[in-house]
Each structure stands twice: as C-alpha cells, then as structure tokens.
Amino acid sequence: MTKEEYYKILDDYVYEYEDEKIAEVAQNYLDEGYDALDAILHGLVPGMKRAGDAFQEEEYFVTDLLLCSDAMNNALDVLKPHLEKNELEHNHTVVIGVVEGDTHDIGKNLVKTMFQTQGFEVIDLGRDVEVHKFVDAAEEHGAEIICLSTLMTTTMRNMRRVVEILEERGIRDKYKVMIGGGPISQSFADKIGADKYTIDAIEAVKAAKELLKIN
User: Does position 180 have pLDDT exceeding 50, yes or no?
Assistant: First the structure.
C-alpha cells in the first residue's frame, strides 16, 4: 500500500476505535519503510480530530473518545520507538495539565503526545491540578512553557490565576503560558495575559516552537 492509504486506515481505525487492529497496521506501515512521524501527523492525529469533532457535535460521547484515545495509543506504542533521533532532541521542557476543577483530559493527553513526538520533555501534572502546582512544577523542572487546559467555563478563571501567581512571584517573564480547550478563545487568552491560544494539538506544537524559536 502507499503511505497515503496507510494514513487513511490509521485515521479510520482511531476514529472507529479499532484498538486491536491498529497496532498491526502501524507495524505493517513501518515494515514498508515509511516514516513513523508522518503516520502520527497524517494518520493518528486526524483520526483523533475527527473524534473530537464528533464529540463537539454530540455524535460521540466521552466513552467513545476514550476508546479512540486507546486505539491511538496502541499505534503510538509501535511508532514511537522508530521516530528519528533528531525529532527527540530539543532539550525543552513543558509543564502540562488540566486546571483545578476539571477532569476532562483527552485533549490534554493528545497535546502531550504531540509534544513528546516532537522532542519535548513533558511534565504531565494530570487533571484537576491546583493552580500553584503548575508554577511549582515549572520551577522545579526548569520548564519554559506552561500549558493549561480546560473544557469547562467554570474553571477558566483558574487559568487566569496561574498567570497571576507567576506575576506575584515575579517570574512571569521566565515562562510562556499556553492555553486551550473547548470554551477557550483568543480573546480570553489576551484578557488573562496568556502567550498563546491554540485550537488543537498540532497547532499547540507549532506555537510552542514559535515561542521558543525552534526551527
């Protein structure tokens, strides 16, 4: 098969949560000599985006998204060891998590995966993270970027609080703050003083590279 045909199958298998078949397809793709990163960018990520769109349109439920994520991760387990070394050597660290009060972490997990495939060290704080822990972790691990996620309007204020804590400690300029999630917008990012708002995982990685001036 051509690599484009493999992309389509990987895309469909994520979307249709074929978690048992997808690993074999990923292995066959590698056996053909195709690039691992391309399979992630052009197969797995689009499939997960379709699932996310279906969720927004209420065609998929949270359980469906979790199953899609499982399928994607099964393929990633096969593909990750074959990523080119230079794709994994930036020496830049990102702290990521879902802000306090929210436990929706599928989007955050996808962003985390995309960062890892592009060579970032990712400190994943998980979900329902107390605001000060983002700042504490950034300081502890020497991070350059703090990524905040939420799918709930009621917890958006905690994103602002992270920025405020950075300002209160006099270290705002040390970190780039990126935010994302269903209810988030560029106007909200501007309002709270975040450095970047991104709509999806691919854009998040692009934005991070721009902020850190990585080619």
Answer: yes
- Residue 58's region, left for phi above 0, alpha for psi from -120 to 50, else beta, is left
Per DSSP bridges, beta strands 93-98 and 121-124 are parallel
Q: Long-range contacts made by residues 134-140, C-beta under 8 angstroms, separation at least 24? A: 134/95, 134/97, 134/162, 134/165, 135/162, 135/165, 135/166, 135/169, 135/171, 137/95, 138/95, 138/174, 138/175, 139/171
Residues 6+ apart with CB under 8 A from 24: none
H or E element at residue 26: helix 22-31
Instruction: Kindly tell me if the per-residue pLDDT of 89 is higher than 60.
Output: no
Mean pLDDT to the nearest integer, 156-165: 98
The encoded tokens of residue 161 equal 């609080």
Pick from 205, 200, 185: which is nearest to 49 by CA? 200
At 67, is the secondary structure helix, strand, or coil? helix
Does residue 70 carry a pLDDT above 80?
yes
Please state, in angstroms and rounded to a whole number, the distance separating the CA atoms of residues 22 and 14. 8
Lowest mean pLDDT of 5-9, 115-119, 204-208, name the range.
115-119
